[in-house]
TrEMBL record:
<feature type="binding site">
    <location>
        <position position="86"/>
    </location>
    <ligand>
        <name>S-adenosyl-L-methionine</name>
    </ligand>
</feature>
<dbReference type="GO" id="GO:0004603">
    <property type="term" value="F:phenylethanolamine N-methyltransferase activity"/>
</dbReference>
<dbReference type="GO" id="GO:0005829">
    <property type="term" value="C:cytosol"/>
</dbReference>
<feature type="binding site">
    <location>
        <position position="81"/>
    </location>
    <ligand>
        <name>S-adenosyl-L-methionine</name>
    </ligand>
</feature>
<feature type="binding site">
    <location>
        <begin position="59"/>
        <end position="60"/>
    </location>
    <ligand>
        <name>S-adenosyl-L-methionine</name>
    </ligand>
</feature>
<keyword id="KW-0489">Methyltransferase</keyword>
<feature type="binding site">
    <location>
        <position position="65"/>
    </location>
    <ligand>
        <name>S-adenosyl-L-methionine</name>
    </ligand>
</feature>
<dbReference type="InterPro" id="IPR029063">
    <property type="entry name" value="SAM-dependent_MTases_sf"/>
</dbReference>
<comment type="similarity">
    <text>Belongs to the class I-like SAM-binding methyltransferase superfamily. NNMT/PNMT/TEMT family.</text>
</comment>
<protein>
    <submittedName>
        <fullName>PNMT methyltransferase</fullName>
    </submittedName>
</protein>
<feature type="binding site">
    <location>
        <begin position="138"/>
        <end position="139"/>
    </location>
    <ligand>
        <name>S-adenosyl-L-methionine</name>
    </ligand>
</feature>
<keyword id="KW-0808">Transferase</keyword>
<dbReference type="GO" id="GO:0032259">
    <property type="term" value="P:methylation"/>
</dbReference>
<keyword id="KW-0949">S-adenosyl-L-methionine</keyword>
<dbReference type="Pfam" id="PF01234">
    <property type="entry name" value="NNMT_PNMT_TEMT"/>
</dbReference>
<feature type="binding site">
    <location>
        <position position="20"/>
    </location>
    <ligand>
        <name>S-adenosyl-L-methionine</name>
    </ligand>
</feature>
<feature type="binding site">
    <location>
        <position position="15"/>
    </location>
    <ligand>
        <name>S-adenosyl-L-methionine</name>
    </ligand>
</feature>
């Protein structure tokens, strides 16, 4: 209940300004978190092992950076978020509405590290085309999307989400098991997050994060 109340104050624009503009969105060094995240995802998808018809992004928030390298490997990408304000922000970007957050520096950087010489505009066009659905999700329900997905997803991606919406380690482990039910047998889960983080900022909201250690995450994955 306390987490839900905190997220009622979540401001997508403030969150984007806090976390995805300079100085945090600094592409000059891989020591900064944003280029690190983009390279992790680019190298993972470049392996060629993770592909298929459908990828579900669990807890997209108002961001699309985490899906830039995925768009070349799946026919359909499904974005999800608990908050309607985040789903609305994603919908505005997908439609190309004016005044949405400018992701072009991120797209340009991904094109650079992927090394294919692809124009940024082509990557952006393809990314919008592959984002077919934006759905509500509650990872604390046994069926997070409200009903089983048919067919199940070939891959799941969750970036900095589950630890930020779980009140404790046990809830994190249960949430991981819940979202795992969306995945087909033999599919892939890409989990990107922070260890030891205790909070993050989204405008007036100071939102708690479960400070996980690596053994916590490994145990939750094994249990799920």
């Amino acid at each position: 209940a306390a987490l839900r109340e905190g997220y009622e104050r979540f401001d997508p624009r403030a969150y984007l300004q806090n976390n995805y503009l300079p100085p945090r969105a600094d592409f000059s060094s891989e020591e900064f978190v944003v280029p690190w995240k983009l390279r992790c995802l680019a190298e993972t998808f470049a392996s060629g092992e993770i592909h298929g018809r459908t990828l579900i992004d669990v807890g997209s928030g108002p961001t699309i950076y985490q899906l830039l390298s995925a768009c070349d490997h799946f026919e359909e990408i499904v974005a999800t978020d608990y908050l309607a304000v985040n789903r609305e922000e994603l919908g505005r970007w997908a439609r190309g509405d004016p005044g949405t957050f400018d992701w072009s520096p991120f797209i340009q950087h991904v094109c650079k590290i992927e090394g294919r010489g692809e124009p940024r505009q082509e990557k952006e066009r393809r990314r919008r085309a592959r984002l077919r659905r934006i759905l509500p999700i509650d990872v604390h329900r046994a069926e997070p999307l409200g009903a089983p997905l048919s067919p199940p997803a070939d891959a799941l991606l969750s970036a900095f989400c589950l630890e930020a919406v779980s009140p404790d380690r046990a809830a994190f482990a249960r949430a991981l098991a819940h979202v795992g039910s969306l995945l087909r047998p033999g599919g892939h889960l890409l989990l990107l997050g922070a260890l030891g983080e205790s909070f993050y900022l989204a405008g007036p909201a100071r939102l708690p994060v479960v400070p996980l250690a690596e053994p916590d995450v490994r145990a939750a994955l094994a249990a799920a």
